[in-house]
Amino acid sequence: MKHLMIASYRPSRTDNENVIRMLCEHYPKCFFEEAKQRRPLKRDIAADIVRDDDFAVAPEMITAALDWYKSHVGYDYATTIAGSKRIDMHGREVGTVTEQEAMSAKKRIDEFNEKRNEQRTVQSPVRVLGEMHARGQISDCAVKKLDAPMSQTPRIKAASAP
């Protein structure tokens, strides 16, 4: 079967997700949509999948989807233990994760967590509003409402009817 290659086409996230879904259906012992179930894949598994005539997807799409699949932090967690077994497209153990690969995966996880923590700090509502005020995007009045202490007046519940 011949595949048409479009030189400047870059698969979208949706394209990658669709190919991954197809891989999960076609190779259920190898590919998993749930990140916690992912396992280390055989090196150069893309070549095996491209050669499989029963899986008719363009090689470029397979490669892009596999790169996307392996870039997920869930896949990194699966490769953090040196000696973990790698699997082929049928779920058979065919190799192991090296110490270097495990260290690289741990480094990527640390970078991911660091970036996520930075984003949480940067996106603090108080910080965002303070920056918006500094740029003149919200008034002094709106900022004063943020700084106002919480009302100390006790709330009284309405009496229920007997």
Protein described:
There is one protein chain. The protein has a domain at 13-99: Fertility Inhibition Protein O, Chain: A, Domain 1 (Orthogonal Bundle), CATH 1.10.1710. Helix 2 runs antiparallel to helix 3 (59-70). The protein is elongated, with a radius of gyration of 25 Å. Strand 1 (85-87) and strand 2 form a beta hairpin. The chain has a two-stranded antiparallel ribbon. It has seven helices and two strands. It has 162 residues and is mainly α. Helices cover 50% and strands 4% of the residues. It has helices at residues 13-26, 45-51, 59-70, 73-78, 99-122, 125-134, 140-147, and strands spanning 85-87, 93-96.
Helical content class: 40-55%
CATH class of one domain: Mainly Alpha
Low-confidence stretches: none
- How much is the average pLDDT? 85
Tell me the distance between the termini.
Answer: 80 Å
Spell out the helices and strands N to C.
HHHHEEHHH
The secondary structure category is mainly alpha
* Spatial extent as radius of gyration: 25 Å
CATH fold-level topology of one domain = Fertility Inhibition Protein O, Chain: A, Domain 1
- The fourth-level CATH homologous superfamily of one domain is ProQ/FinO domain
How would you sum up the major sheet?
2 strands, antiparallel
Total beta strands: 2
**Percentage of β-strand residues:** under 5%
**CATH architecture call of one domain:** Orthogonal Bundle
Strand order of the largest sheet: 1-2
Task: Give the number of helices.
Answer: 7
Shape: elongated
